[in-house]
Amino acid sequence: MEYWEGQGQVDAKYQQSRHIYRTVKRLFDIIASLIGLILLSPLFLLVAIAIKIEDPTGPVFYTQIRLGKRKEPFEMYKFRSMVVNAEKLKKKLLQQNEIDGAMFKMKDDPRITKVGKFIRKHSIDELPQLLNVLTGEMSLVGPRPPLPAEVRSYSSHDKQRLTVKPGCTGLWQISGRNDVGFEEMVRLDLDYINHRTVSYDIYILLKTVGVFLFPNGAY
Fold it and tell me: What is the model's pTM?
């Protein structure tokens, strides 16, 4: 049986503390994402110009269907870091996947553009997801939202990642990212879900700033 937060009998004080946490977390997400979008708008413009200079015919942003809390689908925003036909080319590269489990990653992925290599290394390509945070589809901190195809191969244990709202960053990002395998990523996500607090979220966000400046395995 799949477990969703709120299922079964839970201690009343625990329920109240979780409600307070979710309320504070949502308010923080709204305020922080709005401020972030305003302050980062000059960077957004520079990245958009760089993407267009390298490939004038392709779009600046890339949207992809991901699954959020309770497998709810939504469109996740990113700066485009790959060639326009990247999804079609992916089928030819599946045998070269360098991560075990329900994910696909290649360190020298031929689909990545020159601008894409830089913005992916510094996680700048993920910044448009502040829009997803503002609209409530994502949170600043939480498990990364998976692709529907990835979830189809999840075990019941893996699906516990989907009991909370997905995040822009989390323990996976600050613990080595692509250097961390799928099973370890799931373990980190479940550790976060079981111990999440406002102070823990702030700690992860502060560590994420360091990852932006000094990349730790992103590609």
Answer: 0.81
